Amino acid sequence: MSFNKIIHFIQTCTNYFIDFFTDLHCIECGADLEHGEYGICQKCIDEKNLFNRMLVQHKGNWIEKKLYGITRVEVASALMMYEKGTVAQELIRRLKYSGYRKIAITIGHAIGNNIINNDRYGHIDYIVPVPLHHKKKIIRSYNQSEEIAINIAEIIGASVISDNLIRKNEGKSHASSSFEERIMSQGNFYVKDPDFFESKSILLVDDVFTTGSTIIDCCKALDSVQNLTIYVYTASAVIV
Question: Which CA distances in Å does 173 have to 11, 176, 181?
Fold first, then answer.
C-alpha cells in the first residue's frame, strides 16, 4: 500500500470517528442537536438570521460587485457573512479542517432552499464545486466544496460535475496577499472538456469568498466554454 493510500485510509477512519462521536451539540448554544441538525441547531439559525444576510444575497451585493465586469457571472450570493469569532467562521473551520463533514448537509441544504426560493437564479444544469488539489484531498479525504455541492443537488435536483473543472497546482494560501497579487497568480484551473458545458447553466460552489480571486480564476478557465451561463453561490463571504 502506497504512503498516500495509507494517509487516505487513516484520514477516512478519523472522519468516520468524528462523524459518529462528535458534533452532537450546537456550536453556538450548546444544546443537543436534533435528528437532521449538524453543527448548529435550527433555533440558533433562525434567531441569528444566519442564512439570510441581504448584504451578500440581494441584487448588486458585495460579491457581485467584485465579479461584474471581470467575469461572465450572472448571479452571485453567499449563505453567511464570514467574520472572526462568528458561528459562520466556526462552521467553515470545522467542515474544512476538523473533519466535520456533515456540516456540509446544513450548509448545502440551506443554499439549495435559498436558490429555489429566489427567482434571480434560473435553471441550473450542473453544480460545479471549486476543485481541491488531489494532494489536499488525500489529506482531508474530501473536498468541502464538493460536499456542499452534493447537498445542494439534493434540494435543487441538478447533477454535480466534479471532474471537468480541474485545478492544475496545489497552490498556496493567499491570506496575506493583495488582490492584485492574487490576480497575477491566477491561471490555476482549466476545463478538461469545454464541449460538455456548452450551452449549459452551471452553479459554481465554494466555501469562502474573500477577494474573489479563486472564483475569477475558475471563470477565466470557463471562458473556453461557448454559450455558458454561470451562477455562483459560496457558503460564506468575507466583507473587506
Answer: 22, 8, 12
Q: What is the reported pTM?
A: 0.85
30: left (phi over 0), alpha (psi -120 to 50) or beta: left
Q: Grid coordinates representing 27?
A: 456550536
Give a three-class secondary structure readout of 6-47.
HHHHHHHHHHHHHHHHCCCECCCCCCECCCCCCCCCHHHHHH
- With beta carbons less than 8 A apart as the criterion, state whether 229 and 204 touch: no
Asked whether the beta carbons of 67 and 83 are under 8 A apart, the reply is no
How do 165-167 and 159-160 pair as beta strands?
unpaired
Render pLDDT for 157-199 as a digit per residue (tens, 0 to 9): 999 999 999 998 865 544 445 545 544 445 899 999 999 999 9
